Amino acid sequence: MTTASDRPPVAPGEPAPTFTLPAVGREGTVSLDDYRGRKPVLLAMFRGLYCPFCRRAIAQLGVTSDALKAQGVETLAIVATTPDNARLYFRFRPTRAPLAADPELITHKAYGLPHPPVTDELMTAVQQTRINPTGELPESLPIIQVSEALDKIHGFTPSQTDREEAAKQFPQLKGQFLVDRDGIVRWANIETATEGLAGLGKFPTEEEFLAVVRGTLGS
Length: 219
Fold this sequence. Notes:
This protein is of the alpha/beta class. It has helices at 52-70, 83-92, 106-110, 120-128, 143-154, 160-169, 206-217, and strands at 20-22, 29-31, 41-46, 74-79, 99-101, 130-131, 141-142, 175-179, 185-190. α1 crosses α7 (206-217).
């Protein structure tokens, strides 16, 4: 997909852009420098909590983080919502994955995650593309209907913050980056990069993440 980002996504071999963000599960901040020289880290960048695919992936990442830690890799989920909104949500739906809040999409922009321009062509594709990325629905549905259906399944009622972020962020894409202890990106996975809109909402499995770690870091 085309993108309106200032730069293309950070590619393997490039230095990982540094950042400092509010931590969600504790006081203070979290920074990429916290990991430099110590351990590799998997950065997973998500849209706001209005995104059902992101909520499901964050829960999945909480389980995967234990398996990655056994391989010597830390995990950090970066959620594009306010710290207060994130803390409220994860108070009732806790995850083992460490979390940071990035309501202004600072990291998404720095890492070049695509934010395609809204065009008639894009909106037509959104209306016509049918997906079921989490496998929770009995059949594939148009993208907007999938979001509504998953919200009902998850018992999720968006807050005013969620609604505002959904309008502001559309159509932001998500991605994951494996950064080694020297601060170099070793692997990147960008939503829709290989399948177009048909890949919207998909997220690597634990087995896929472990294969990446073993193949790139030699764990």
